[in-house]
Amino acid sequence: MRLSVRRIINSINYRLIDPLTGRGAKHGASKTDFRKTHRKQFSILKGTYSTDEAVRLAVGGEFDAVGVLLRETLIHHGLQKHHYVIDVGCGSGRLAKPLSEYLTGKYLGIDVVPELINYARKLVGRPEWRFQMAEGLTIPEQDEKADMVCFFSVLTHLLHEESFVYLREAKRVLKPGGKIVLSFLDFRIGDHWNIFQNINLRGLGNDSQPLNVFISADMLREWARHLEFEVEVIKDGDEPYVPLSQPLEFKNGRIVTDLAPFGQSLCVLVRK
User: What is the predicted pLDDT for the residue at 30?
Assistant: First the structure.
């Protein structure tokens, strides 16, 4: 079958010109720039909602209930009142606000969206706590200072290479025996698969939405081996296991009073 001139041109563009020039990767490259994508997403939210609504939606909604759940998760995994917590991807203070009711120790929150950092700083009202812009894949702290570093809904938006580098950086700032608490998306979990099917596949080419990146438990175990972490626990996101000190009330009217599922799957790593 003879190819038309147009099909020949398209084939040359796809197989030769685009790979050489990077032209075909324009949208993909933009989508993998997590700083640009998150700032663009927040700009869109600001144009649609009030500031208070925009900053809460920017971190995924259910601001109050999920914030308490995040705090309870850290406490369940060993956070003590005097500890030093580093919150990577602190957003608008969803964790920091309820954490301020418990933690007497130091806190550092970093994020890539300056408006969210400023909002979190004002919301929490703890002048001794630090809220700073994230620079690259680094954590602005000296070696072996922190008791716990958390990555909630952070590795879900990074390339695997970036996640590995960030975990290596977290190891640097952790004290021996300190912990990383991270959340991740896993294809095995039904709600997570729905994210892939309904958001990832339908959002191809839409560079205003952050990436949703999936990680397997086996991958985390292998990363831990190379980084010399001990894997304390890996929990599926749909398993109720986080003990609650207060009921969680969600906007749909659902109330959780005993054990709560985390939603995303969870992994705790311990620095040897």
Answer: 53
Say how far apart CA 30 and CA 66 lie, in whole Å: 29
3-state per-residue secondary structure call for the chain: CCCCHHHHHHHHHHHHHHHHHCHHHHHHHHHHCHHHHHHHHHHHHHCCCCHHHHHHHCCCCCHHHHHHHHHHHHHHCCCCCCCCEEEECCCCCCCHHHHCCCCCCCEEEEECCHHHHHHHHHHHCCCCCEEEECCCCCCCCCCCCEEEEEECCCHHHCCHHHHHHHHHHHHHHEEEEEEEEEEEECCCCHHHHHHHHHHHCCCCCCCCCCCCCECCHHHHHHHHHHHCEEEEEEECCCCCCEECCCCEECCCCCEECCEECCCCEEEEEEEC
Summarised one tens digit per residue, pLDDT across range 131-185 is 999 999 999 999 999 999 999 999 999 999 999 999 999 999 999 999 999 999 9
Name beta bridge partners: 255: 249
pLDDT beyond 70 at 18:
no
Note if the pTM is more than 0.90.
no
Residue type, 204: L
Which residue type, as a one-letter code, is found at position 190? G
Tell me the pLDDT tens digit for each residue of 19-36.
343 433 344 445 578 889
Interatomic CA distance for residues 213 and 151, integer angstroms: 14
Phi then psi dihedrals of residue 87, to 5 deg: -110, 95
